[in-house]
Amino acid sequence: MALTLLRGIRTPTLFRTNVGLFCTARHPPLAHFTTRAGGMQTTEPKAAPKSIQQATKEAAEHKTRGFEAVIGIETHVQLSTITKAFCSCPYNYGSQPNSTVCPTCMGHPGTLPVLNAKVVDCAVKLGLALNCEISMTSKFDRKQYFYPDLPKGYQISQFDIPIAEKGYLDLDLPVEFGGGHRRFGITRVHMEEDAGKLLHSESGSYSQVDLNRAGVPLLEIVSEPDMRTGIEAAEYGAEIQRLVRYLGVGNGNMQEGSLRCDVNVSVRPIGQPEFGTKVEVKNMNSFSEISRAIDYEISRQILLHKESQADQIVQETRLWDESSQKTFTMRKKEGLADYRYFPEPDLPEVVLTSEYIDEIRNSMPELPEAKRRRYENMGLSMQDVIFLANDDNVAHFFDATLERGADAKLAANWIMGDITAYLKNEKLSIDEIKLTPLELSELIASIKNGTINGKIGKEILVELIAKGGTVKSVIEEKDLVQIADPAAIEAIVDQVLADNPKQLEQYRAGKTKLQGFFAGQVMKASKGKASPVLLNKILAEKLKGNQ
Amino acid sequence: MPPPLQAHRMLLSHRRASPIPRRRFTAAVSSLPSAPAKTLAPGPGPSSILSIRESLLSGERTAADITAEYLSRLRRTEPIVRSFIHVADAAAEREAQELDRRIASGGQDAVGPLAGVLVGVKDNLCTANMPSTGGSRILDGYQPAYDATAVRRLREAGAIVVGKTNLDEFGMGSTTEGSGFQVTTNPWDDSRVPGGSSGGSASAVSARQCVVSLGSDTGGSVRQPASFCGVVGLKPTYGRVSRYGLMAYASSLDVVGCFGSSVVDTATMLSVIAGHDKMDSTSSSHDVPDYRSDLVSLNLLESKPLNNLRIGIIQETLGDGVDTGVISSIKAAASHLEQLGSVVEEVSLPSFSLGLPAYYILASSEASSNLSRYDGIRYGRQVSADDLNELYGDSRSNGLGHEVKMRILMGTYALSAGYYDAYYKRAQQVRTLVKKSFEEALRRYDILVSPAAPSAAYKIGEKANDPLAMYAGDIMTVNVNLAGLPALVVPCGFVDGGSAGLPVGLQMIGSPFSEGNLLRVGHIFEQTLQDFSFVPPLLADS
Fold this sequence. Notes:
A: Arc Repressor Mutant, subunit A; B: 11-stranded mixed β-sheet; ATP-binding (chain A); chloroplast (chain A); mitochondrion (chain A); ATP binding (chain A); Glutamyl-tRNA(Gln) amidotransferase subunit B, chloroplastic/mitochondrial (chain A)
């Protein structure tokens, strides 16, 4: 009964504003863009940031030619609550169609919504994280329209009294995009339920309805039109994703549609106070696509302005097409849709107490912006700051390492260097390795106090990441303690000089470059354990002294 | 003088209820009996439920016997009355036999408070093992996956659901003529309507096709048919009974209510179905008293049992447009209440006449939204079409009836951009006014009384083409829904019509969650109303 064939529905009529049709698996996973220190959550490490930089540059050029873009974003965040917003069905992405449904989320007669309290928890958390005013009393409303993936014929949402409003979001742009701190206004955050999904047949002759996603809780975040470039919009999206993950309210996965951004773009001549005609752009599956789609759209609109065809910019929804790197008209807006909102009579008002809000506030972790400011104050470079703060797991590891007494700059170097290289190679995340923050700080200390040298340190690190254990045990087990006894080193140096009379002769004949050769041989003979400082000092003396 | 409550005894013992002695248009108060009536068993009062329970426990009769008795009466009267859209006679017989086995092996403990009681359920309440259509063709053949909470609680108390009763489509109507399936007649006169929208549930109890029944009341859908059919009807406080499983018409006004042939039965039923339900966030967690045990039986009554009770008779309900016979009956009932010791005064509710238009705007607005789910996509009738809008349009225009479409259109209009403030919002303001004026009146009076309808049952077809006249008939009841208050309708008299007169019901309105008090007063009123029998002539024919 649940899987109903819709005979002969024309596919174009299926595209609508308020459904995330384009986050389905119809599109193959697309490359994310990566910024080396941008910290955006990426799966493919070596996508080319070049094109984005180029696009940004182009956009910048357009701007200098007398126009500026105005960008606002509506973000839908799917919450990873155990059960749906208004019934006790679970939701797992990718489940068999219509396997996690019940009479309530299927909109059967007589069923009633019962609010999942966790949804309010998440909304208040995110509202606070976005520096919003939390409404002590908010309510639900019905947003009404007909569509096969909307079982009740209305979506339970919040209309005139959202749970949170009037906030802002602070972020730091990646250094390679020029850097800089930005504050973007947040208009509102409200709670609502997701719709199901339509699955269209290959032939287009019928469609099927999957209601697994129907009733899954969403938070919709509406930004002020404060962004001006594609990269700002992409970074805004990425920061929302970080918050969602930091707070643990959702997985923020764009590929699965757990985080969806609809972008409104308009352009205007610089100095003009009024906004231009805005165009909605959808169907971006990564932050890189958001950035490129917006920059494309800005160029398109500015070009029309320059060709005196500004009247061709109309209120419409355009889709980003990743293969052609262009936006296309999906649907022109014929007047404003009338959703006939009215208060949801099946749900009581959501009344919060200040104790409840304080409790949530106190339970919140340190957020990315606070972290970045803290790291900045430690004297780390902005590149380091962004890298360390923008991934919750990395930040956690870094902080724990510092707590064990490690030096911030050294710890940052180890994490951003050898550890990250290893993680990339093995496709692991930092919380999946056996190395503990304690051992990293031990390692740093062991190098600093001369127990081992830096080269041995790198070897030990790999051992610890892969197999675990302690720095001490690895050093003992492998007999890796640095040879700091001058006599022992002198003996090795003597031996090496004795073994290489030919090179010694050449050295003494003036080929002083060979000192490096001898140093390498000594280090090799010491199995890498010789203190480099002592080695170089003694070797130099010997090479000189025997003259 | 016949002993009081003869009608009930006659019913229970299957004797003919003829001839019916009564006086019309006069106060029907007899002096209170000086000694307990011999025929009354000690206990709270005349009750079919109690009588069934006692005979099951004593072994006098089996559940199968009782079921067979009701089913045979149902089969005999149903061709005339047509109360039921679906009769589950085989299931009822099976459940009765099952109960008999449990009684035989487990004894008294196996018998719930409603054991062996046949219940009719309005077809807009979901039942897992029976079709549930809401009286609409668009749900023809639809069988829900679950029982409505009220139905589940009745079943858990041992009740046997005998079938699904007819109604105006999705509860929208006042005659039951708006059913997508059939027209139900009034057991007092088969040329007349039983009222509505719970007409099937009212007529089924009136014709004793079942012991009690469930209805729903959005603007009077329990109270008006109770009045038309001469049975007791209770509209509980909004939120007193869970709406889970009730096909929503107007969610902020809908309540599940009940019908019985006596106040005691109605009270017994309310105790079972009332209470918080986690599936309905608007259900109240207000304590549920044992409504039945709070009732005082006739033999224990003092001479002035309603001493200290202040009753306000709503002035606006006894004026123009109200049948003179109805006014006389209500005035007679008022003087009866006075004789029982209460103080009765006229009270004015200035916002009373505003309630009707406000109600129709709010109810239609909510209905336009609530009925969106009947789109032919997931269940119910689907008309195949070449494109999506056509599929919606054809499925809905085909499956939904005229009155429903009209209310959807009205509601859609009222909620549309540019009209919302003038209609929906304004109606909400009126609702607040209505609520306040009731609150004020109920500070001065314990109970407000009025007719349950401006007339007795009218002819089938009489108002079928005049929706405004039909809407006007809801004037007595809609205000109570707007204010969310409880109201009890008890038969109080007759007007001319049919072969044996047509019953008139007295509506008693109380403060939120004062059902106990309404039932107490209703019970005293009913027991002391000695000269009337509310057993319809239909049952005297056999």
